[in-house]
């Protein structure tokens, strides 16, 4: 028996999508493909963003489990 659920995922653009997935994180990942980029920050990235006032955000441990 599948443990998948159907999630309603809303995008920043206001679009709403129904996605069948094992977890809500996978549903969000599926919808966000191609909309975001991610890579390790380089030293110059840190200097540039911190000088603009961008704060470093930390994912809480329970969200990473």
In summary, what is this structure?
The chain contains two helices and two strands. With 65 residues, it is an alpha+beta fold. A hairpin with a 5-residue loop joins strand 1 and strand 2.
Considering the chains and any ligands shown, give keywords for the structure.
65 residues, alpha+beta, 2 helices, 2 strands, elongated
Total strand count, please?
A: 2
Largest sheet, in brief, is: 2 strands, antiparallel
- What gross morphology would you assign? elongated
Unreliable residue runs: none
The spatial strand order of the largest sheet comes to 1-2
* End-to-end distance: 24 Å
- The succession of helices and strands, N to C, reads EEHH
What is the structural class? alpha+beta
Mean pLDDT: 91
Radius of gyration: 16 Å
Helix count, DSSP H or I runs of 4 or more residues: 2
Helix content: 25-40%
* Beta-strand share of residues: 15-25%
Can you give a write-up of this model?
The chain is α+β, with helices and mostly antiparallel strands and 65 residues long. It has two helices and two strands. It has a two-stranded antiparallel sheet with strand order 1-2. A hairpin with a 5-residue loop joins strand 1 and strand 2. It starts with a strand and ends in a 14-residue tail after the last helix.
């Amino acid at each position: 028996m599948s443990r998948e659920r159907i999630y309603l995922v809303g995008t920043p653009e206001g679009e709403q999508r129904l996605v069948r997935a094992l977890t809500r994180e996978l549903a969000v990942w599926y919808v966000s493909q191609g909309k975001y980029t991610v890579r390790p920050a380089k030293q110059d990235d840190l200097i540039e963003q911190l000088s603009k006032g961008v704060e470093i955000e930390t994912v809480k441990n329970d969200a990473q489990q």
